[in-house]
Automatic annotation (TrEMBL):
Transmembrane segments: 6-28, 40-61, 73-95, 115-139, 151-175, 182-204, 224-242, 263-285, 305-326, 358-377, 389-409, 416-435, 441-460, 500-519, 525-547
Assigned keywords, A-Z: Membrane, Transmembrane, Transmembrane helix, Transport
GO MF annotation terms: transmembrane transporter activity
Record flagged with keyword Repressor: no
A Pfam family hit: SSF
UniProt KW Flavoprotein keyword: no
Signal sequence, start to end: none
Name of the protein in its database record: Solute:Na+ symporter, SSS family
Chief location category: membrane
Native source organism of the sequence: Fodinibius roseus
Membrane topology annotation: Multi-pass membrane protein
Database matches in NCBIfam families: sss (TIGR00813)
Length: 548
């Protein structure tokens, strides 16, 4: 890395540091810190969700998996985009009307305060583990790009800067720096793809130099086969409906329709982005077939082909991509600890100033845990394997009890939710360890166990207070929106175009699943069915957010 590139990177880090810290004076209440006082507009909301969704895990982890396994890893991103649209039109309106800050807070309203506190503790450390994956990814990239071969140095420097501006500015800092980082990240990605295609001799040459299965969107075999597509859509819907880092951005919106627009637009915007890191990963397979660490695929390509200045800007794009995710999740951790444990479970009454102090201390402490977890990622097989295995198994049963039964079945109680969650997690771990360590099968098994155990235990134990379920069911109606809101959002639309729009999205999901299942036969049409279903979801969602 040349001196000018180093100057560019240092200047970028200083700029993020200063811009983030500027919002310290904007923070006077907990809502300012956690959810920007609920004032985000659709564009900023879409940008910050997109910046949180697209990160160095994409450029390092997913591109590295593309290097190793092929094109089908692109569904890791695309199913997430589909899920953002579905969550935006069906789930987010309910949560936004409840004016909650966290998913554990929703679990407290729906089930019990004890279940709320338990899930909050688990999720605080689960988020810290995810951020450890992110820090690992960015440290690997930084070592390769800069030539400064000190994993520890990069881990401490990047974590320290992100922790600092998150502590000072909360979600205002996070949302604003995310928007800036989103632009840098997009610029870097738009440079990366054409450079990679030029280096390999064009897409036709790339396709000719890898096995046919490598370029299949729905492979019949391998770790990322048709079964992966089914497991991934479940995991992605889970992510878009209960993941704190995504939902906290949506909870920061001006109103329900803004939240819905931000989610849907982010999902659509991010879709073409996936090609910007998946295809370079495959190109690196042709250019560097013998890499020992496949997570180094794209960083190696960048160092080899990018000239000075452009290399510095690309490094800034990669840095910004991961920092935007780390700052969002750090803020989410602070929100959960303060809202769900400090003020919620332990019922400690505190002033605005005391709550903000606690939130900032939590961010600082969790920064240390993130550093520790980053050293575990290589042991678990790299960024993507670590994420899909640990987080998939822990999160999927929570999706079942929170969304499927929490929103659709009033008879579900806290005993059933508790049993379903832990049964799902246990079965997922058992299937993963006892089998061939297939994360797809483990995720589906985890969901299946929760689906069976939760209603069984609920029916064998006394029903809970009707008022708990009624509170949630009432939030499905637009009457709970602010009385000044002149554009209420109906989950079941009033207009014919609205009804057709949600029907198109539901049919699109069914078509996608049919495509995935057809992929088990090796039929070429499976890819067309899956992609066609994805586009139907997008079209339906886009129409839905602009009609009654």
């Amino acid at each position: 890395m040349s001196p000018i590139d180093i100057i560019i990177v240092v200047a970028f880090l200083v700029l993020i540091f200063v811009v983030g810290g500027y919002f310290y004076k904007w923070i006077s209440t907990p809502d300012d810190f956690y959810v920007t006082g609920r004032k985000l507009t659709p564009f900023i909301l879409a940008a910050t969700i997109t910046a949180t969704n697209v990160n160095v895990y994409s450029f390092v982890g997913q591109s590295g998996t593309a290097y190793q396994e092929g094109l089908s890893i692109i569904w890791h991103t695309w199913t997430g985009n589909m899920a953002l649209v579905l969550s935006g039109i069906f789930i987010i309106p309910i949560f936004r009307r409840l004016r909650i800050r966290t998913i554990p807070e929703f679990l407290g309203l729906r089930y019990s305060q004890g279940f709320r506190g338990l899930v909050a503790v688990i999720w605080i450390f689960r988020l810290a583990f995810w951020l450890g994956i992110g820090i690992y990814a960015i440290a690997i990239a930084a070592q390769t790009i800069t030539g400064v071969q000190s994993f520890t140095l990069w881990v401490f420097v990047l974590t320290g800067i992100t922790v600092f501006y998150t502590i000072l500015g909360g979600t205002w800092s996070v949302a604003t720096t995310d928007a800036l980082q989103f632009l840098l990240m997009l610029g870097g990605a738009l440079i990366l793809l054409p450079v990679a295609m030029y280096a390999v001799g064009g897409f036709a040459t790339l396709k000719a130099q890898v096995p046919a299965e490598f370029m299949s969107l729905v492979p019949q075999s391998g770790d990322f086969n048709w079964l992966f597509l089914i497991a991934m859509v479940l995991l992605s819907i889970k992510w878009a409906t209960i993941n704190q880092d995504v939902l906290q951005r949506a909870f920061s919106s001006e109103n329900v329709r803004t939240a819905s627009k931000g989610m849907v637009l982010s999902g659509i915007i991010t879709t073409p982005f996936a090609l910007l890191w998946i295809l370079p990963g495959i190109a690196a397979k042709v250019l560097y077939p013998d890499l020992t660490n496949f997570d180094n695929a794209v960083p190696t390509l960048i160092v080899e082909y990018f000239p000075p200045v452009v290399l510095g800007l690309m490094a800034c794009g990669l840095l910004s991509a991961m920092m935007s995710t780390i700052d969002s999740d750090l803020n989410s951790i602070a929100t959960m600890f303060t809202s769900d444990l400090y003020n919620g479970y332990f019922n400690i009454e505190s002033s605005h100033r005391q709550s903000l102090t606690v939130a900032r201390l939590v961010v600082l402490v969790m920064g240390l845990f993130i550093i520790g977890f980053s050293y575990l990622v290589p042991v678990l097989g790299g960024a993507v394997e670590a994420n899909l295995t640990v987080i998939g198994i822990l999160d999927t049963p929570l999706f079942v009890v929170a969304i499927i039964y929490g929103l659709l079945w009033k008879r579900a109680n806290w005993q059933g939710a508790f049993a379903g969650y832990f049964a799902g997690a246990f079965v997922g771990v058992f299937v993963y360890l006892a089998g061939d360590q297939s994360f797809s099968l483990a995720i589906l098994s985890s969901a299946g166990a929760a689906l069976v155990v939760c209603p069984l235990v609920s029916l064998l134990t006394p029903p809970q207070e009707v008022v708990k379920a009624n509170t949630i069911w009432d939030a499905k109606k637009p009457e709970l929106e602010h009385p000044d809101d002149v554009d209420p959002f109906y989950i079941v639309p009033k207009s014919i175009p609205g009804k057709l729009a949600i029907s198109a999205s539901i049919f699109g999901l069914i078509l996608y699943l049919i495509g995935a299942i057809v992929g088990s036969t090796g039929a070429v049409i499976s890819s067309y069915l899956a992609v066609g279903g994805m586009f139907m979801i997008f079209i339906g969602g886009l129409v839905r957010i602009y009609v009654k």
